[in-house]
Amino acid sequence: MSEEETAFEFPCTFPFKVMGNHDEAFEAEVLALVREHVGATGEEAIERRASRNGRYLSLTVTFTATSKAQLDALYRALHASDQVLMTP
C-alpha cells in the first residue's frame, strides 16, 4: 500500500482515541485540536472514560473523516501536544 493509499474509504465515520491526565487542560486542548481539524463536534460525539484510579482520561471523539491527510494532520497535532500521553 502506498503512502496515499489507505484501508479506509472516505468519507467515513472514524473514532479517534486520545489519552492523557484526567484534568480540564487535557480535555480542553484535545477538543480544540479536534475541532480545528474536523470542525464542530457535538457532545454526543465525545466519549469519556476515566482510568480505574481516576488519574487518566481516555477521550474517544467520533467524527466524519474526509481524507487520510486530515487524519494524519490531526494525529500529528495531538502527538505534538504536551497534554496528550498516547494516541493509540
Structure in words:
This protein is an alpha+beta fold and 88 residues long. The chain is built from 2 helices and 4 strands. The longest helix has 15 residues, at 24-38.
Topology (elements, then pairings):
Blueprint: E1 12-21, H1 24-38, E2 46-50, E3 56-65, H2 68-80, E4 84-86
Antiparallel strand pairs: 1-3, 1-4, 2-3
Helix pairs in contact: 1-2
Keywords:
88 residues; four-stranded antiparallel β-sheet; 4 strands; 32% helix; globular
Low-confidence segments: none
Give the % helix: 25-40%
Rg computed from alpha carbons, rounded to a whole number of angstroms = 13 Å
Q: H/E series, N to C? A: EHEEHE
Largest sheet: 4 strands, antiparallel
Tell me the number of helical segments per DSSP (H or I, 4 or more residues long).
Answer: 2
Could you tell me the mean pLDDT? 93
Query: Spatial order of the strands in the main sheet?
Result: 2-3-1-4
Instruction: Write down the overall geometry.
Output: globular
**Number of DSSP-assigned strands:** 4
Relative strand content = 25-35%
End-to-end separation in angstroms reads 21 Å
Structural class: alpha+beta
A few lines on this structure:
The chain has about 90 residues and is an alpha+beta fold. The chain is about 30% helix and about 30% strand. It contains two helices and four strands; from the N terminus they run βαββαβ.
